[in-house]
């Protein structure tokens, strides 16, 4: 509006259609970036950097595109400033966001590499979330319990349950439920260390094996998970999540899973998005 109010329309003979085409394509690409960020990224700090950086680029490219159709008086410099300043600031914000995105992806890749070190059979992967399933969890749990008991090191299991997930699928459709599970698994993966393992325990449950982690450290971990899961998109206000963490250092693999699941089933959670419970094994 400011550009149109201050500028004077150029005559058709003065228009450079090659510049208009080039700058129009650049503007469309910037808009596409912005749309992809909004539609594919979960809410959070990294997404905000990417969003605001792309938004400033769109602003600068849009004014540059409008500049092909209007001419401003020589004494008015504000439009030149508004056209030039957002682009470098937007590039800096976008670069900072991409660094954060790269850091997130490295964490997720490290989780995948950590899982591959022990069992490299991709048949053990859950086809939807691409995390390992119950068979892999049980095998690794038996191995780690033996190692930790021999070295007298702590070991904790954290189990997460999605309340009313079947009702969610019936109401919003299986595709919405699958998208939620994928986003949830990615958020959980990004919070784990290379030595930790995330597995899909059941349709609406995930288990995290926390190596060399005592009860106090597990509690800090669960608090971190609580903060990050609050940023999940896609109708999560209709779902409630329970997390229970158990010290299983002295148990067998079957007993560890049974006790953690029993602690989770015994929760009587109030109806708000995320509840936590810490159980001593």
UniProtKB/TrEMBL annotation:
The chain crosses the membrane at residues 20-37, 49-66, 78-101. Gene3D superfamilies: 3.30.70.270. Keywords: Membrane, Transmembrane, Transmembrane helix. It catalyses: 2 GTP = 3',3'-c-di-GMP + 2 diphosphate. Residues 153-281 form the GGDEF domain. It comes from the Bacteria. It is an enzyme of class 2 (transferase). Its EC number is 2.7.7.65. SMART domains: GGDEF. CDD domains: GGDEF. This is diguanylate cyclase. It comes from Alishewanella tabrizica.
């Amino acid at each position: 509006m400011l550009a149109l109010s201050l500028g004077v329309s150029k005559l058709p003979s003065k228009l450079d259609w090659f510049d208009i085409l080039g700058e129009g394509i650049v503007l469309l690409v910037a808009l596409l970036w912005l749309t992809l960020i909004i539609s594919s990224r979960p809410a959070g700090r990294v997404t905000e950097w990417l969003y605001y950086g792309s938004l400033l680029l769109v602003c600068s490219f849009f004014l540059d595109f409008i500049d092909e159709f209007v001419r401003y008086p020589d004494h008015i410099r504000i439009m030149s400033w508004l056209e030039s300043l957002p682009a470098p600031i937007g590039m800096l914000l976008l670069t900072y966001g991409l660094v954060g995105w790269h850091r997130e992806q490295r964490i997720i890749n490290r989780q995948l590499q950590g899982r591959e070190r022990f069992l490299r059979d991709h048949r053990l992967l859950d086809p939807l979330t691409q995390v390992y399933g119950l068979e892999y969890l049980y095998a690794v749990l038996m191995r780690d319990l033996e190692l930790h008991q021999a070295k007298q090191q702590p070991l904790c299991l954290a189990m997460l349950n999605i309340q009313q997930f079947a009702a969610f699928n019936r109401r919003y459709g299986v595709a919405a439920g699958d998208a939620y599970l994928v986003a949830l698994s990615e958020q959980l993966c990004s919070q784990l260390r290379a030595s930790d393992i995330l597995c899909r325990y059941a349709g609406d449950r995930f288990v995290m094996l926390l190596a060399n982690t005592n009860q106090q450290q597990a509690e800090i971990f669960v608090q971190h998970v609580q903060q990050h899961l609050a940023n999940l998109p896609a109708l999560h206000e209709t779902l409630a999540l329970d997390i229970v963490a158990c010290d299983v250092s002295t148990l067998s693999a079957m007993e560890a899973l049974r006790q953690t699941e029993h602690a989770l089933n015994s929760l009587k959670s109030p109806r708000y998005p995320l509840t936590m419970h810490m159980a001593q094994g």
